[in-house]
Amino acid sequence: DAEIAFTLAAILLREGRIDDAVAVLNKLPASPENNPALLTLRSLSHALAQDWPAVSGALESADVAGLGLAPRFLLTSARLRAQHTPAAAAVLRDGGAPEPVGGRAGVIVLRALGDDGPAISEEDAQLAAALAAQPALLADFAAGTGFQFAQLFDDAYQAFSRVDAALGSWEPGMIDFLFGSLSGTALVKDTA
Questions:
Q1: From the centroid of its chain, how far is CA 35?
Q2: How far apart are CA 161 and CA 176, in angstroms?
Q3: Whose CB among 33, 61, 75, 80 lies 3.0–4.6 Å from 139's, allowing a Cys bridge?
Q4: Per residue in 35-54, is it b (16+ CB within 10 Å) or e — as a string?
Q5: Can you list the alpha helix ranges (DSSP code H) found in 60-134?
């Protein structure tokens, strides 16, 4: 049953067992019913393995408007890593909609890419400016957001922690993203 296989693959990804998750996914046939979940889980497995060209390859032929938030942000990250900035920004736009997808995170990424878009707080504007100056961090921020939307909170926290550490730790705009992920982590060691 495909639903059971998707659940198993998701559990395996959460446990960091990427190869086992891919083996489960590879046994599933492509079909209109399966494709959204297959695309999401395959893109997550590639992203967790840090295989960003494979993330792009898995999602390039997909209708971006039909993708969920997790694969959209992972594709954005993959395109940023490949220095395809206009294509990265396009993933977070829904046709002619005034607001980007992904809420606050989408606005920050687009602002970092030079899109003025909707008004944002001073903290978010500072974060966007800092990310704009360091494209690798912007790609990590987009990946962290994708992991967070997929509820892979450990991986999201790690990505956001890398960004925060590179920006000088406790960047005001990063705190919500860090704590938003920290609350759902299972593998991050408690150092308190």
A1: 19
A2: 12
A3: 80
A4: eebbbbbbbbbbbbeeebeb
A5: 69-81, 85-91, 103-112, 122-132
- Token representation of residue 74: 């992972």
Please tell me the distance from the alpha carbon of residue 131 to that of residue 107, in angstroms, as a whole number. 12
**Of 62, 128, 63, which is closest to residue 94 (Cα–Cα)?**
63
In angstroms, how far is CA 90 from the centroid of its own chain?
Answer: 15
DSSP 99: S
Find the distance separating the first CA and the last CA of the chain, reported in whole Å.
43
* One-letter amino acid for residue 20 of the chain: D
| Token pair listed for 94 | 């829904």
The tens place of each residue's pLDDT in the chain, 192 residues long, gives: 778 888 888 888 888 888 888 888 888 877 766 577 888 888 888 999 999 999 998 888 888 878 889 999 999 999 999 999 888 888 888 776 778 889 889 999 999 999 887 888 899 999 999 999 999 999 999 999 999 999 888 899 999 999 999 988 667 888 888 887 777 676 555 544
Place of tokens 């030079």: 114
Neighbours of 129 (CB within 10 A): 12
